[in-house]
Specification:
Largest sheet: 18 strands, antiparallel, barrel
CATH superfamily of the largest domain: Porin
Oligomer: single chain
Distance between the termini: 22 Å
Structural class: mainly beta
Length: about 400
C-alpha cells in the first residue's frame, strides 16, 4: 500500500507542478478518473493463466496559456495490486510486471486562422489509422504535430508522428524499422457529415515501412436502420518487421437494425485479402485499435484470407443505467493447407450508478476458440471507474 501511495502522490505532485507553470492561465479545467481493473486470461489448452489487478489514477487539465493559445496535460499512474503468470504481456503493467507513471499528454493548440489550428506535443489520438485505445487501465499516447481545419461540414487534418508510448509503458519510443533505422509517419485525412451520410478517408505513409489507407462511409436511414462500411488497405515496405514487400486489405460491412426502442441487432461481415494478414501498427510502441465491427474483445479476425461473420444485440434494460451487449463472431482461415475455425463470443454489462454521479462498473466476458491451438481462452475484464 505504501508503494501505491508513493506512486499516486508523485503523480499528483508532478501534475500540480505542471499546472503551477501556467501562470497566464485564465481558466484551467481539471478532471480526474480512478479506474480499478481486474483482468483474468484463462487458457484452456495448457498455457499459463494470466491474472492482474491494478489501480489507475488519471488527472487531466485543459486551459488557456494566452487569449488564443490553449494547452492540455494528462498524468497517469497505474499501481499493481496483484498478479501472476505472464501479467506484463496483457497491457496492464510495464515490462518488469510493475507499476508505472507517465506524462501521457502535454500539448499546445495554436490557432493559425479562424478555422485552422496547429497542435504540437503528446496526446491520446482517436483517428482510424492512428488511435490510442482505451481498453485497459491506461491508454497509449502519440507524440506528433498536427494541422486541423474546418471546411464547411468537413474537417481535414494532417499529422507527423515520430514516436509513441504504449499503454503499459512510461517512455515514448521512436519508430524503428527492421533495419534499425528510425523513421516518422506522415498522416492525413478528412471527415464530414452531409445529412444522414458520414464519410471519412485517411492515408498514412512511413518510408520503407508501410503505406496504409482507410475509407469509412455510414448512412442512417429515416427508419433507424444504418449501414456502415470500412475499407483498410496496406502495402508493407522492404523494412517492415514481418511482412516486407507484401500487401493486405481488410473489408467490413455492417447493418444495424432497431428491433424496438430498447433492442438493436447488428449483422456484420469482414474479409481479409492480399499476401498477408492485416497489420495496422506503425511499429514500435504504436498500438492502434481496428474500428471495424468484427474487432471484438480479444480477436480482430484479421488473419490472412480470413472471412468472419458477426451477430450482435444491444439491450437497454429496465434497470436505470444498466445496458447489455451480446455478440458472437465466427471466422475461418487457411493454415498449412487446411481450413481453420476461429470463434469468439462476448458479453458486456455496463452500469452507471445514478445515485453516485461519475461512478460506473463494466464487466467484459469473452469466450475464444481457435483451431490452431494456443488461443483457447476464457477472459474476464472487470472495470470500476469513478470520474471526478
Amino acid at each position: 500500500m505504501a508503494k501505491i501511495q508513493k506512486l499516486f502522490l508523485s503523480t499528483a505532485v508532478a501534475f500540480a507542478g505542471a499546472l503551477s507553470q501556467t501562470s497566464l492561465a485564465s481558466d484551467v479545467e481539471v478532471n480526474g478518473n480512478l479506474r480499478t481493473l481486474y483482468f483474468n486470461r484463462d487458457f484452456q489448452d495448457g498455457n499459463t493463466d494470466v491474472v492482474s489487478l491494478t489501480q489507475a489514477l488519471k488527472l487531466s487539465a485543459t486551459g488557456s496559456l494566452t487569449d488564443s493559445i490553449n494547452f492540455g496535460a494528462t498524468f497517469i499512474g497505474n499501481a499493481k495490486l496483484d498478479g501472476h503468470g505472464d501479467d506484463q504481456s496483457i497491457g496492464t503493467l510495464d515490462e518488469d510486471s510493475d507499476s508505472f507513471a507517465k506524462l501521457a499528454e502535454a500539448y499546445v493548440d495554436v490557432p493559425l486562422t479562424e478555422s485552422t489550428t496547429l497542435r504540437a506535443g503528446r496526446w491520446i489520438t482517436s483517428y482510424a489509422l492512428f488511435n490510442d485505445q482505451d481498453n485497459r487501465a491506461t491508454e497509449p499516447s502519440t507524440q506528433a504535430i498536427r494541422l486541423e481545419s474546418k471546411l464547411g461540414r468537413a474537417t481535414v487534418y494532417a499529422m507527423y508522428s515520430d514516436r509513441a508510448s504504449a499503454k503499459e509503458q512510461a517512455e515514448f519510443e521512436q519508430y524503428v524499422d527492421a533495419n534499425g533505422d528510425k523513421y516518422g509517419v506522415y498522416f492525413a485525412g478528412a471527415t464530414g457529415t452531409w445529412g444522414n451520410l458520414n464519410v471519412t478517408g485517411e492515408f498514412g505513409f512511413a518510408e520503407d515501412f508501410a503505406t496504409q489507407g482507410y475509407v469509412n462511409a455510414s448512412y442512417l436511414f429515416d427508419s433507424g436502420v444504418s449501414v456502415d462500411f470500412h475499407q483498410y488497405i496496406a502495402d508493407y515496405g522492404s523494412a517492415h518487421t514481418s511482412s516486407a514487400d507484401q500487401d493486405s486489405r481488410l473489408t467490413n460491412v455492417a447493418v444495424r437494425l432497431p428491433i424496438n426502442d430498447i433492442l438493436k441487432l447488428t449483422l456484420s461481415y469482414q474479409g481479409v485479402g492480399g499476401d498477408v494478414a492485416y497489420n495496422a501498427r506503425w511499429g514500435g510502441a504504436d498500438d492502434p485499435w481496428y474500428v471495424t465491427w468484427n474487432a471484438v474483445q480479444y480477436s480482430d479476425f484479421n488473419r490472412k484470407d480470413e472471412d468472419s461473420f458477426l451477430v450482435r444485440f444491444d439491450y437497454t434494460t429496465p434497470i436505470e443505467g444498466l445496458n447489455v451487449m451480446v455478440r458472437y463472431a465466427d471466422g475461418e482461415f487457411e493454415q498449412e493447407g487446411r481450413d481453420q475455425d476461429h470463434e469468439e463470443g462476448n458479453l458486456l454489462l455496463h452500469y452507471d450508478v445514478a445515485s453516485v454521479p461519475g461512478l460506473s462498473f463494466r464487466a467484459m466476458l469473452a469466450y475464444i476458440r481457435v483451431e490452431t491451438g494456443g488461443e483457447d481462452i476464457n477472459e474476464t475484464r472487470l472495470f470500476a471507474d469513478y470520474k471526478f
